Amino acid sequence: MQARRCYTLPLPAGPPLVLGARTLVMGVVNVTPDSFSDGGRWQDPGRAADHALALEAAGADLLDVGGESTRPGADPVPAAEELRRVVPVLERLAGRLRAPLSVDTSRAAVARAAVGAGAAVVNDVSGLRRDPGLVGVVAESGAALVIMHSRGFSRDMYRDACYGDVGAEVARELQASIAAAVAGGADRSRILVDPGLGFAKRTGQSYAALAALGRLAALDRPILVGPSRKSFLAGRADGGPADRDWATAAAVTAAILEGAHVVRVHRVREMRQVAEVADRCRAALEARRRVLAAGTAGAQAPALAETPRSV
Ligand code: PMM
How much is the pTM? Predict the structure, then answer.
């Protein structure tokens, strides 16, 4: 475990995103009929907006609105349909949230409309490979950009799931995407990176990418991780995506101990609790490491801020 660096990301409006002091929780709002976990639940724009407001009330620091399923095998939807799903939700939320809005899209046209409707973050699961125009929208608008690692696209992503060293290859490919973003005019200080758990990665490869999260620290950008309910978390008695929240909690904890700054999840209230405890564990482990490094092994680690409890 290494110390987590702190970053302050400027956003087009409102206060900057402060990353590293505590883990931020990004709530998922999928306005799709076919997402693997919550497809069809929030298709009505009013219900989707209410869901976003409920996630903020539950403790979300960011809200990620998406209009195209990225599950393996999903067919792409036309841009007009993605716009029709996402923009009315963002418009309904404008001025009603403190948490910045993110749009989960790989298309420039959707990113442009979303930023116009108030999104402050563009979350591109294609890592800038799908639409070369997307980086221009980010550069012009000053939106923050999440560059997620993947290979191929939804329909064929497992074809390229061949790695010698997952952690090293993910870090190298993300580095190349950052360079492409900067060459396209994006501000490096507004970029986050994401190892893309489950994207072009089979089960063992997703765990390897999670275990190698520390390698991404070399990119010197904040790290976002999205393990929520994914199939790599399915245990022997798996009841489907909605049955994977305990497993998600384990992966969220591992991600935070390995350096994640933001976790993207469906169950915000619960994962906020998990993140708080994982942050306290991080702080205790870092303090203990400092004590050991100072050569005072056996001395007491500095006490964490205490909240008195009866039990
Ligand atoms: N996963 C999904 C969609 N978007 N974005 C980022 N940055 N990272 C992810 O891991 C990610 C994502 C797929 O999950 P969903 O269908 O629950 O949204």
Answer: 0.94
